[in-house]
């Protein structure tokens, strides 16, 4: 009999989502916008300690609108973290702008402030200022935002903080998504909370968020007829999906707790092998950093693990119908961005070569953990 699939990060629905969705149906508020959207935006503001939020169709649309609002146009440069999902970089291309990729540092696996400053110094010499900087909180681990913001402010470049993977994470109590000129969230089906599909743009700038809402609703002018003075987009979240988001946000702390427990469980499991000649590495928190542990990720350097590789583990798990995934392939390695300028130090290349994301859903069962650990035990026994 085929074994059931153990997913990398499946949706985890709570008790109140259906109540809010039923409320939308019972009031016939199925059309876009509505009271759930307003309440969800307010809840996101409270959660992230930001003053304004616009609920949108995706994190990608949030980045796109942020770039538009910052005036990014054809031939402009935008600095972007290299190791990330392509959605961080694609909106740069939507605007006809040019991405410049910045490698990571070893502590958080996120944008390296030293390389960022080097890139900005070179940009100053060349007179080609970037219009924005996009750091990413990889797998829920906060980037070195204090350093990044300080450097960005020194050079007068706004920051679009890609917190798509980091809702519930913080640095010294300050939530991810609240550091930059804009913050970006994602509620895709595999995120720590989901609206099925969705995202949000955060900012303390009321005028910017109001413009974002305007552009996201097809940029319809105030008129009794349909009139448009700007190019608009169909980027607003529906009232039904916002109802799901309200219920999900109510259990965010529980979901973060469950995923952090997953991390600790994996850490404890691998310790027995690390005490017997292996050297499995994790994405560690620095002092004051609090990750939501969206995904638990490991590094498996074959030179330090008796020849064992990330791919051996991935393929063996796949044979047992257990989903794992390599870390994001850096943008500077992607064919579509191969001609883009990059500032590299080898960190993201090493992360991609040796990194593996393990099943990390907040709804993992004891039976599923047993299957995962049994599979790993079989792999390690061969080495």
Strand content: 5-15%
Mean pLDDT: 96
CATH H-level superfamily title of the largest domain? Type I PLP-dependent aspartate aminotransferase-like (Major domain)
The tally of structural domains comes to 2
The CATH class of the largest domain turns out to be: Alpha Beta
Note the total helix count. 12
Gyration radius over CA:
21 Å
Structural class: alpha/beta
- What is the CATH topology descriptor of the largest domain? Aspartate Aminotransferase, domain 2
- Ends distance: 29 Å
**Could you give the count of β-strands?**
15
Parts with pLDDT < 50 across at least 5 consecutive residues: none
Elements, N to C (H/E): HHEHEHEHEHEEEEEHHHEEEHEEHEH
Write the layout of secondary structure elements.
Blueprint: H1 17-26, H2 35-48, E1 52-56, H3 59-69, E2 77-81, H4 90-94, E3 98-102, H5 113-126, E4 130-134, H6 145-155, E5 160-162, E6 170-171, E7 174-175, E8 182-186, E9 199-203, H7 206-216, H8 239-250, H9 252-274, E10 281-282, E11 289-290, E12 296-299, H10 310-319, E13 325-326, E14 342-343, H11 347-354, E15 355-358, H12 366-381
Parallel strand pairs: 2-3, 2-4, 3-14, 5-8
Antiparallel strand pairs: 1-9, 6-7, 6-11, 8-9, 10-12, 12-15, 13-15
Helix pairs in contact: 1-8, 2-8, 5-6, 10-12
What does the model show?
This protein is an alpha/beta fold and 383 residues long. The protein has 2 domains: 17-251, 3-Layer(aba) Sandwich (Aspartate Aminotransferase, domain 2); 253-381, Aspartate Aminotransferase, domain 1 (Alpha-Beta Complex), CATH 3.90.1150. The chain has helices at residues 17-26, 35-48, 59-69, 90-94, 113-126, 145-155, 206-216, 239-250, 252-274, 310-319, 347-354, 366-381; strands spanning 52-56, 77-81, 98-102, 130-134, 160-162, 170-171, 174-175, 182-186, 199-203, 281-282, 289-290, 296-299, 325-326, 342-343, 355-358. The protein is globular, with a radius of gyration of 21 Å. Helix content is 38%, strand content 14%. The strands form 4 sheets. A 4-stranded mixed β-sheet has the order 1-9-8-5, sandwiched between helices. The chain has a 4-stranded parallel β-sheet with strand order 4-2-3-14. The chain has 12 helices and 15 strands.
